[in-house]
Amino acid sequence: MELQCCQSSLFTRLGCIFSAFLLAMMFSHAVAYDPLDPTGNITIKWDVISWTPDGYVAVVTMNNFQMYRHIMNPGWTLGWTWAKKEVIWSMVGAQTTEQGDCSKFKGNIPHCCKKAPIVVDLLPGVPYNQQIANCCKGGVVAAWGQDPSAAVAAFQVSVGLAGTSNKTVKLPTNFTLLGPGPGYTCGPAKVVPSTTFLTPDHRRKTQALMTWNVTCTYSQFLASKNPSCCVSFSSFYNSTITPCPKCSCGCRTKNCIKSNLKLLSVPGVNTPRKDAAPLLQCTSHMCPIRVHWHVKLNYKDYWRAKIAITNFNYRLNYTQWTLVVQHPNLNNVTQVFSFDYKPLVPYQSINDTSMFYGMKYYNDLLMEAGPSGNVQSELLLQKNPDTFTLKKGWAFPRKVYFNGDECRLPSPDTYPHLPSTATISSPAIAAALSAVSLIIMLVCKLI
After folding, report:
1. 259 φ/ψ angles, rounded to the nearest 5 degrees
2. 3-state secondary structure of 108
3. pLDDT for res 350
4. What is the DSSP letter of 38?
5. DSSP letters of 304-316?
6. pTM for this one?
7. Is there a common fold for 42-222 and 224-259+277-430?
8. How far apart are CA 178 and CA 157, in angstroms?
9. Contact of 378 with 305, CB cutoff 8 Å
10. Taken in order 260, 261, 265, 270, is the CA torsion positive or negative?
């Protein structure tokens, strides 16, 4: 009897430990820690700039501090829940998607009376009296590492039926952010030291009457159960190509079309849907994006790799795309062709990660699937004799991210491998052998 009790107690403890482990794993996804961008987040700042008879006017600023994850079209959607019975009298630079029930108001009708308003950015080209600085970009916000000046969005809101002092204002709760899809988790609003502003002549400082911040972090696990991209490999020393793993992004067999199908010539096939549902080209991996890494050449002091990004989604153009690659030799990048390049050093002692993105007005737009749906570049890297090797897959990336989401890599045992019976000849040796062969042929003809 005592043995049974001990066994029962032991199993109970093991069950508790296992449950705690699962909860820890779930929590780790919730906090959305990214080892390549450990401090990346979107911070939403509310600055109360004036009091009104029944509330306040605030400027809401959204700063994207993520190094390589941006908010693309159709843009951000921000929501919250009012703490009391607040209404929005007016907005500049943004609008709510619904007005709600404002029937109790006579005369002036509020812009929104909903308890939980949903706010979206205005489109470019709206009248100037509806704009403020950093607004009206259709909700598109660049990544901090790509373009800090465009990594901000803002709007102004006039709130009524609210507090009229620092002590009576109640902070909104339950903040949500779509960018444009799910993936972001927002913490509670916290009062912080008031923001200071410089006047246009930079001779006087003014201060917000009250400021609070909301921090939102991204989790790929919350955004989608499947990856959104995959990676394939090839090399000059092996004729085989390592493709993306089968069903890398899930197998959507019903939502794909063959590249030569007549349906592609029907008008409107490339028009995005409101639910952002993709229309993918039928492939074995079924990913919207494939990144291909090719080890192209091996010189005496340098080696060369080629990167090609292909879009298999017929309904989506990728604007301001970003590509992040982790590889030990990226600390010796000599030249990058056709892409802009920036090293990422999240940890000062390690420099093995780089961000690539398109050159403005040249290839910063990755077109939808089809003949133009790809961008490519080449890298020239200097060798470190102590570490460089072509053996055991060393020349291929450790991690690849596209638009901030980690791509699925092939299994290491499928990487292109060196021939087992011969050493690799450099291009210079191959050229020399060709020249010798040509000379021998010419001599033979003369004889």
Report:
1. -65, -25
2. coil
3. 77
4. T
5. EEEEEEEE-BTT-
6. 0.83
7. yes
8. 20
9. yes
10. negative
> For residue 9, which of 17, 302, 343 has the smallest C-alpha distance?
17
Report the helix count and the strand count for the chain, using DSSP H and E: 3, 28
What three-state secondary structure class fits 178?
strand
CA angle 170/155/178 to nearest 5° reads: 80
pLDDT given for residue 278 in this prediction: 84
List the domain boundaries for the chain. 42-222, 224-259+277-430
CATH of span 42-222: 2.60.40.290
DSSP state of 265: G
DSSP H or E segment with residue 356: strand 353-358
Residue 99 is encoded by which pair of tokens? 């007005």
For residue 81, give both structure tokens.
Answer: 């829940």
Q: Are 128 and 136 in contact (CB under 8 A)?
A: no
Count CA within 13 A, CB hemisphere, residue 203. 1
List the Cα angle 167/169/170 in 5-degree steps.
115
Which is it for the CA torsion 284, 32, 73, 67, positive or negative? negative
Owner of token pair 């390589």: 68
Average confidence (pLDDT) over 9-14:
46
| Cα 299 from Cα 9, distance rounded (Å) | 65
Tokens of 439: 């000379």
Determine which helix (DSSP H) or strand (DSSP E) holds 432, and give its type and residue range: helix 427-446
42-99, pLDDT tens digit by residue? 999 999 999 999 999 999 999 999 999 999 999 999 999 999 999 999 999 999 999 9
Task: Report the C-alpha gap between 279 and 166 in whole angstroms.
Answer: 51
CA 102-105-109 angle, to 5 degrees, is 70
Token representation of residue 374: 């790809």
Going by their DSSP bridges, the two strands 205-207 and 256-257 should be labelled as unpaired
Which tokens go with 368?
């939808």
Multiple choice CATH, 224-259+277-430, 3.40.50.300, 2.60.40.290, 3.40.1110.10, 2.40.160.60: 2.60.40.290
Distances (CA, A) of 308 to 137, 330, 356, 390, 407: 29, 17, 12, 20, 14
CB 313 within 8 A of CB 269: no
pLDDT given at position 445: 52
